[in-house]
Design brief:
Distance between the termini of chain A: 62 Å
CATH class of the largest domain in chain A: Alpha Beta
Number of domains of chain A: 3
Oligomer: homodimer
Helix content of chain A: 25-40%
Largest sheet of chain A: 11 strands, mixed
Strand content of chain A: 25-35%
Number of strands of chain A: 17
Radius of gyration of chain A: 25 Å
CATH architecture of the largest domain in chain A: 2-Layer Sandwich
CATH topology of the largest domain in chain A: Dihydrodipicolinate Reductase, domain 2
Largest interface: A-B, 57 and 57 residues
Number of helices of chain A: 14
CATH superfamily of the largest domain in chain A: Dihydrodipicolinate Reductase, domain 2
Chain lengths: 442, 442
């Protein structure tokens, strides 16, 4: 065999939905992939956790399936890690790099937790570390931010990067149903896992935010740096309040460069937010993902597609396999981590946000003045205030002599807004703070 | 000077809007660019056509401006061509490559006309040829198709890639105004050039379609291969007909892989089409661009942003400059042309399309049967037909005893649909074919 045509050996760690899709495509599309890379790709093994299961769904020679992942990574030029979680994924990735293999991974949790260790190992061994599939599934988003926008300056990234939460919020909006009921429906339809905590509490979106912010701002941001609120506190009333503002509620991963007197910082956070129905992100329905990027020269860009699922994730993994395989053929490596900017990650209190606050108040003279004074004390400027009589309540509680006050603020430090809400809750004139939500994208 | 830190020399050909924006950003953002590349980028000259003009708007040392482009390309590691047109752009690009420089260009017309010559020269001299800015301005679309989707199979690309025509069609839709009047307004607002032929007649969109199809299908497609219809025949009546179908009219660049018994072919075409208002491309307003990609594993993806303008185009150019500069630093080259698939480009008659046809017919028994027979003769299957009384006409012509017949077909070869329309026009029962337009995206 001509050495130019000696195959590039690919090892797969993980035989689940994504691993299976990657294996099948490597086999069924072998000729086209070889033409694109310049040399054939040979699947040399698939490491799985448990022996003895029927693996016929992988559609590959059963002899390729092994439980000895340590042995497998020593026999490959490219190691594809789609196991997920911290261990054994981390040790196997590091072992692969030590053996000189480039690594393609979809492991957002590991990258967001311990990316610098992996980047350093890739540098030390002169190999590639690619991970397009870790954020927003099939949507090309990391390569555009890291490479296409490498000559521009990213100002902000707003992403809907978790399909489960988007499905739940979208369904609550279209049906008017409550949170728990909608989560159960999402589970029944396969849009939410049996234990949906990582999705619903925003851990998944926070890991993705850390990865996006690191690339966008050339700064190391880990999961622990990301402020996180999930959607479990979002009520049907919040959704209704958003509708009255001609908004929808989305769980957003927000990465912002924040100019400051002593130099810029970055704010990285995940929380539900109201966005106007006219905003491009508002039309992202069901379990789709989208990422909205604002850059100094490019202006506003949006990337939209399927954020999860075996085939879409496999598409991103295979794109990375072809890229790192091309580097094996042509020489060179892809662009690595650039963390030169090293901007400080700001605490949530310093983030500049806007709040929408609905209050159930006594309908009597002077109440609005008192409420307004609380905002003023915190130097929070009010943009609009609307007062309406509360007509009836589903829970049958007394509403006579009460009014609803809906306040939308201008931008202010989140700490000032949070303090304002705390003080309002304690005012005797305020019967209840019925809805508090940040507002984005106006 | 440490040789690792010796700057990478960048030469700019063209000092217009894009060239000026690139020059300013290279200067103002020098430190960040150096950190991202690993070595400084030094602007060594800007070649302009005419000496003596005031170039202070370029914001660079006037000594850098030269009219001797041949000399300049011999002194650079990276040559950025933003002159446009065929000559002298082509000769200068080839000369730059001969001198060992990598080339970044935004020249869609040249690439679509003579790409293979440029690719071959880049290969022969072992340099990079990058051109992200040639299609859809700031939107990262070529790198995603060529690299992110390199492990997937693109089935189709639908693009709104010409801002002028989108502005005109969007304005006709929102105002109800006619074509000529709207073009004049677009010119007055700076959205259309003094001679807008290349935009309005679809030449610009066709060049971009050729570039998109070449990358998507690993096949050489040139401008001459692209079927092209501009928007100058689109009337206020067509826009109104679209609205009645809950559609909008867009000028689309369409690249499709068409399965065939003797192997696949590709259809590459530019024409106005009705698309449903619910389609993501329908919400692309004013002069924005968007590209919708359908791939076998990834599914549907959309990329959205600004398609033109100095800063947005400069963003794409600078991203390419950083990429090819990184290759200078790290070794290697980016992935070149892959034309291995070499699929035949099908004639327009073989494209599978759907038509919307409005007919002004005699309101008498048997007319519908005659019309339906014409479709049947061509083996064109009708999806819906709607008949309505013509109430009045703006031009005051007689409408009594006449009806409007609106037919939407199923997919059929374009040649059969065109022949159907020809035959219908000649039927004595058909007073006028009032609107014919292809339908996409249902």
């Amino acid at each position: 065999m001509d050495s130019e045509q000696s195959p590039i050996r690919v090892a797969l760690l993980g035989g689940g939905t994504v691993g299976g899709a990657v294996a099948r495509k490597l086999t069924s599309n072998a000729d086209a992939l070889a033409a694109r890379v310049g040399r054939p790709l040979e699947l040399v093994g698939i490491a799985v956790r448990r022996a003895g299961r029927d693996r016929s769904d992988l559609g590959v020679d059963p002899a390729l399936v092994t439980t000895d992942a340590e042995d497998l990574v020593a026999r490959a030029d490219i190691v594809v890690e789609v196991i997920g979680g911290f261990e054994p994924a981390r040790s196997l990735i590091l072992a692969a790099m030590e053996h000189g293999a480039s690594v393609v991974t979809a492991n957002k949790a590991l990258l967001a937790e311990d990316g610098p260790t992996l980047y350093a190992a890739a540098d030390a061994h002169g190999v590639d570390l690619y991970y397009e599939a870790s954020v927003a599934g099939a949507i090309p988003i990391l390569r555009p931010i890291h490479e296409s926008l490498a000559g521009d300056d990213v100002r902000s990234v707003l992403g809907i990067v978790n399909g489960t939460t988007n499905f739940v919020l979208d369904a609550m909006d279209s049906t008017g149903a409550g949170y728990s009921e909608t989560v159960e429906r999402a589970q029944a339809l396969g849009y939410a896992e049996a234990d949906p905590t990582a999705d619903l509490e925003g851990f998944d979106a926070a890991a993705k935010a850390a990865i996006l912010a690191s690339l966008a701002f050339h700064t190391r941001v880990s999961s622990a740096d990301v402020y996180r609120e999930g959607i479990s506190e979002v009520s049907a009333g919040d959704i209704e309040a958003a509708r009255e503002m001609d908004c929808v509620v989305k769980l957003l991963s927000i990465c912002e460069r924040v100019p400051g007197e002593d130099g810029d910082g970055v704010s990285v956070r995940v929380h539900p937010a109201m966005i106007p129905r006219s905003h491009p992100l508002a039309s992202v329905r069901e379990a789709f993902n989208a990422v909205f990027v604002d850059a100094a020269a490019a202006g506003e860009l949006m990337f939209y597609g399927q954020g999860a699922g075996g085939d879409p994730t496999a598409s991103a993994v295979l794109g990375d396999i072809v890229a790192v395989a091309r580097h094996r053929v042509a020489g060179g490596r892809g662009p690595g981590e650039t963390a030169y900017a090293d901007l400080p990650v700001l605490p949530m209190g310093d983030a500049l946000t806007r709040y929408h606050v609905s209050l159930d108040v006594a309908d009597e003279p002077g109440v609005l003045a008192k409420v307004a004074a609380v905002f003023a004390e915190q130097h929070v400027s009010i943009e609009t205030v609307r007062q309406q009589i509360i007509e009836d309540r589903d829970d049958g509680r007394e509403t006579r002599g009460r009014a609803q006050l809906i306040v939308v603020t201008h931008v202010a430090p989140d700490s000032a807004l949070a303090a304002t809400v705390d003080t309002l809750s304690a005012l005797p004139e305020v019967a209840e703070v019925t809805s508090v939500m940040r507002v984005v994208g106006f």
